């Protein structure tokens, strides 16, 4: 039978598979230590894909290489071809792979689910330790036993650190580590026994109760707004991380914690508040996805010192051994492949460099800063870190200096319906399960979160929080889905639009926002792209833009992040698809899009003839035309009375809402709409499951997650269950 694989290829594979695997494993470690931290700062799909691939390959390649080493030892011993020094080198390489399996400090888990597999990693540690031990024992007696033993110790420490980090990041263990001691409360039985005995003895006795109340809420926001230094931001973030990290696992908080947090955040301006939230979320990210909890502390520092010492000592011992052998010209010196020596030096120097980078990052991390005792030392580290960041080149400087992506994705239903693909493309990608990915690439847009939008959201939430005198009122406020705003704005005629399910409300207001945003230009609307003339006060313009930004962002969450919105989405996916189908059908009938002409333009001539600016203008014109056509439809009869309720489309219900909104004067219209969108955003933030927020830490972060945490800090939500502390009961006996 003829060999399918040529002999030359087989020989090349046999000679280089082990060396290639080891060097590739080192390359993956380098890639991970530099790229892994960027995933919390960039919501870039391509970067995430690279990190995910490297994360999966790193474990597989290292384990594969250990197997190759053991196999090479057996094959060469059976053929009596194994030079002594080559066998020693193979034994030295094996612990390096254990070191690589430990991974860099910057990433232990790619997703939350990886933490749940900590037992598998513990089992993997034992198996790989046995495999590496077998390789080392096969090589005994070895001239390189000292560097091999040192590397083995370093590898065990690294792998154990990773397993420990996964164990602590597992949500069950994460919750268990924060549970307070069991509290039976005051001794009720003993008090009542004494009280009863006094009564039986006819001794005048009474019980006096002194309750520990949380106090009113008015004092929480009657404080002076103060600016924070960089150090104050880090310390504030760490303080509230330790208090509120239990949010991730649905722990409850006391009135003292609520009061303290409210007082602190009411005293902050929006910029400082968001900085503190960034630091707080960054600590949560480190606790769940990195080794930072493990390597910080006395034991962690000691193990890091031992590991670094082992690496440096291994290099020194190997270099001394190699120099001695070269100088002494041993009989079998020529049998050691020179490239193997270079590979060994690459592994040793690479390991030391990676460890040095990890140590430097640890020294300048927020964790080290908050653990230092002296303020001057903390400020010195912060200033030095800031200088190092400034000297980085180009856009990477800005990326390195921030703790989240500071971006929000946008998705528009009208734009989605107008950028229609060929049917055969949809069928093909859907067959491979790639339709959602293609939709995200083609239709999703990114914008930086405007500073004014942050201020608007923060101030709106503070106003709501001022009304939350107690946690019961706070829960009622958080349950609002636009009805609170409409009631307070005297817009009772619009209450019907917020009466349905959450996904229905969101789609209704999204389409209505687009119809109002893209109204035909008039004398007061001169901007051809966005259709408005800048206002001197800025309020009208800002509210209008905020409504559009939040509308597109919330639709993105509903359609492209269904897992995150699953707790509130209902049948959002079905309703979105039905609405899109009705919109496309309507646009085709009005010749806004047609079966062939628009598609050909969008897929062929679109890219050949027009610049990006021209394409943008053409799409804007299509949107203008589509929105105008929708508003021209008479809607005197409700759509459900004509179509029935089988289709879940809300297209023409949104037209009715838009026409109702257009009856308001522009300033009031956009004021109401922007506040409704903040209420819809805060409802989603407080009702999404906590673990779905935690999953976003490693994906660049989401604005809705910041809103979720800010609401908690302001005392909104249902996490505050303890209204008062222990009642202090006294048994008073009259003499």
TrEMBL record:
Pfam families: DUF4220, DUF594. Residues 52-416 form the DUF4220 domain. Keywords: Membrane, Transmembrane, Transmembrane helix. The chain crosses the membrane at residues 16-34, 46-70, 90-110, 117-137. PANTHER family: OS01G0798800 PROTEIN-RELATED. This is DUF4220 domain-containing protein. It comes from Vitis vinifera. The lineage of its organism: Eukaryota, Viridiplantae, Streptophyta, Embryophyta, Tracheophyta.
């Amino acid at each position: 039978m003829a060999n399918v694989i040529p002999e030359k290829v087989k020989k090349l594979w046999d000679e280089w598979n082990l060396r290639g695997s080891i060097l590739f494993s080192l390359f993956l470690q380098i890639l991970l230590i530099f790229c892994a931290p960027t995933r919390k700062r960039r919501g870039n799909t391509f970067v995430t894909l690279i990190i995910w691939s490297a994360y999966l390959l790193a474990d597989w390649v290292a384990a594969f290489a250990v197997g190759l080493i053991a196999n090479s030892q057996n094959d060469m011993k059976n053929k009596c071809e194994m030079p002594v020094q080559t066998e020693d080198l193979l034994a030295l390489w094996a612990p390096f792979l254990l070191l690589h399996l430990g991974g860099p400090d910057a990433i232990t888990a790619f997703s939350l689910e990886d933490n749940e597999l900590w037992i598998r990693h513990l089992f993997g540690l034992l198996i790989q330790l046995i495999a590496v031990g077998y390789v080392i024992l096969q090589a005994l007696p070895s001239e390189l036993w000292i560097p091999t033993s040192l590397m083995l110790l370093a590898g065990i420490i690294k792998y154990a650190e990773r397993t420990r980090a996964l164990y602590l990041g597992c949500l069950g263990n994460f919750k268990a580590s924060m549970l307070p001691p069991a509290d039976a409360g005051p001794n009720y039985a003993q008090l009542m026994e004494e009280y009863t005995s006094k009564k039986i003895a006819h001794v005048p006795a009474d019980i006096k109760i002194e309750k520990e109340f949380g106090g009113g809420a008015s004092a929480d926001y009657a404080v002076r707004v103060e600016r924070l230094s960089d150090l104050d931001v880090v310390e504030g973030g760490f303080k509230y991380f330790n208090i509120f990290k239990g949010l991730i696992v649905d722990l409850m908080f006391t009135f003292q914690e609520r009061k303290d947090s409210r007082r602190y955040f009411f005293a902050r301006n929006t910029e400082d508040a968001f900085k503190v939230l960034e630091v707080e979320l960054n600590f949560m990210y480190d606790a769940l996805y990195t080794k930072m909890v493990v390597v910080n502390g006395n034991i962690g520092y000691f193990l890091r010192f031992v590991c670094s010492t082992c690496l440096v000592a291994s290099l020194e011992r190997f270099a001394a051994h190699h120099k001695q052998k070269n100088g002494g010209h041993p009989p079998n010196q020529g049998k050691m492949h020179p490239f193997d020596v270079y590979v060994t030096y690459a592994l040793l120097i690479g390991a030391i460099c990676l460890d040095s980078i990890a140590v430097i990052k640890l020294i300048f991390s927020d964790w080290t800063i908050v653990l230092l005792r002296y303020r001057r030392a903390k400020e010195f580290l912060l200033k030095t870190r800031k200088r190092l960041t400034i000297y980085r080149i180009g856009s990477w400087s800005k990326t390195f200096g921030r703790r989240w992506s500071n971006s929000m994705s946008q998705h528009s239903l009208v734009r989605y319906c107008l950028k229609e693909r060929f049917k055969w493309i949809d069928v093909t990608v859907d067959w491979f399960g790639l339709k959602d990915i293609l939709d995200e690439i083609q239709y999703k847009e990114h914008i930086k979160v405007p500073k004014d939008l942050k201020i608007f959201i923060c101030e709106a939430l503070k106003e709501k929080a001022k009304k939350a005198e107690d946690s019961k009122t706070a829960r009622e406020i958080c349950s609002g889905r636009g009805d609170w705003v409409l009631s307070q704005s005297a817009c009772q005629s619009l209450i019907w639009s917020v009466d349905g399910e959450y996904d229905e409300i969101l789609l209704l207001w999204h389409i209505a926002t687009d119809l109002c945003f893209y109204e035909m230009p008039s004398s007061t609307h001169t901007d051809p792209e966005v259709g408005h003339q800048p206002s001197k006060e800025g309020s009208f313009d800002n509210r209008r833009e905020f409504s559009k930004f939040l509308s597109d962002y919330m639709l993105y969450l509903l359609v492209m992040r269904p897992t995150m919105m699953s707790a509130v989405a209902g049948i959002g996916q079905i309703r979105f698809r039905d609405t899109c189908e009705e919109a496309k059908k309507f646009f085709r009938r009005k010749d806004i899009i047609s079966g062939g002409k628009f598609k050909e333009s969008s897929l062929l001539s679109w890219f050949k003839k027009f610049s990006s600016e021209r394409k943008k203008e053409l799409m804007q014109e299509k949107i203008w035309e589509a929105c105008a056509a929708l508003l021209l439809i008479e809607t005197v009869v409700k759509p459900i009375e004509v179509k029935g309720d089988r289709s879940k489309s809300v297209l023409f219900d949104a037209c009715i809402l838009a026409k109702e909104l257009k009856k308001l004067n522009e300033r009031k219209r956009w004021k109401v709409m922007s506040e409704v969108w903040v209420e819809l955003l805060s409802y989603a933030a407080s009702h999404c499951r906590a673990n779905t927020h935690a999953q976003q830490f490693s994906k660049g972060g989401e604005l809705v997650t910041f809103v979720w945490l800010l609401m908690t800090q302001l005392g909104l939500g249902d996490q505050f269950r303890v209204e008062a502390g222990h009642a202090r009961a006294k048994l008073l006996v009259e003499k």
